[in-house]
Amino acid sequence: MRLRLLVAASLLAVCLVPSAASADATLFLGRNSAGDDRSVVRGFAVGVSMLVVGFEFEYANAKADDTLLIPALRTTSGNVFAQTFGIPRFQLYATTGAGMYRETLGRDEETAFVLNNGGGVKISIAGPIRARLDYRIFSLRGNPRHKTVQRFYSGFNLAF
Predict the structure, then answer these.
(1) What domains appear along the chain, each with residue ranges and CATH number?
(2) What pLDDT is recorded for position 103?
(3) Mean of the pLDDT values across residues 33-56?
(4) Would the pLDDT of 15 be above 90?
(5) Closest by alpha carbon to 83, among 130, 146, 141?
(6) How far apart are CA 160 and CA 158, in angstroms?
(7) Does residue 31 have a pLDDT over 70?
(8) Torsions phi, psi for 85 (to 5 deg)
(9) Contact of 85 with 122, CB cutoff 8 Å
(10) Disulfide check for 24: which of 55, 61, 120, 159 has CB 3.0–4.6 Å away?
């Protein structure tokens, strides 16, 4: 009972204490990997954070390679993340999220639910310009060619 009261009071205090919100946007390029298959992925993410906790929308698209039988994979997801603060030039984060995916290869197409978990780092370069490195594991529901897809990307991040 005391623990529940402490948690409720802590949440109320966090909600009542004003904090500066910040936002950022990322353009990225990376690789999807499912077994031996690899494909180039491009995308963007837009997020908002309140010191430690934040929320992000992400879109990514990897084109198909019909000759190697690698399907196209498009994902959209809403993510929540926890991040460090107060470390000069580096901001580490862990993220989890859910959304939808569409996998296409030739005439075959699968659209279903996706979960993702991962993390990364944002590295300050100059002013609001940062580099972003990110790793995610996607769990594709439904009947995709591969149930698990890993993604690593690097990107250009602008804080505002």
Answers:
(1) 20-159 (2.40.160.20)
(2) 97
(3) 92
(4) no
(5) 130
(6) 7
(7) yes
(8) -145, 160
(9) no
(10) 159
Asked if 69 and 34 touch (Cβ cutoff 8 Å), the reply is: no
DSSP classification of residue 19: -
- pTM for the model stands at 0.85
Task: Answer whether residue 32 shows pLDDT above 70.
Answer: yes
Report the candidate in 125, 130, 109, 106 with the shortest Cα–Cα distance to residue 45: 130
Task: Tell me the CA distances in angstroms from 34 to 132, 143, 151, one per residue in order.
Answer: 22, 14, 9
pLDDT in tens, 66-120: 888 899 999 999 999 999 988 999 999 999 999 999 999 999 999 999 999 999 9
Structure tokens at 68: 């190697």
Token representation of residue 48:
């908002």
Q: What value does the CA radius of gyration of the chain take, rounded to a whole number of Å? A: 18
Sign of CA dihedral 134, 139, 140, 146: positive
- Residue listed under structure tokens 């005439």: 107
